[in-house]
Amino acid sequence: MSEHPDPERYWKHRRAGYYYGMAWAFAQTPWWAVIELLSPGSLSAMGAVIGWSYGISGTLIVSYYGGNMAQEVAKAKWGR
Question: Where are the bilayer-spanning segments (predicted)?
Answer without folding.
Answer: 16-33, 45-67
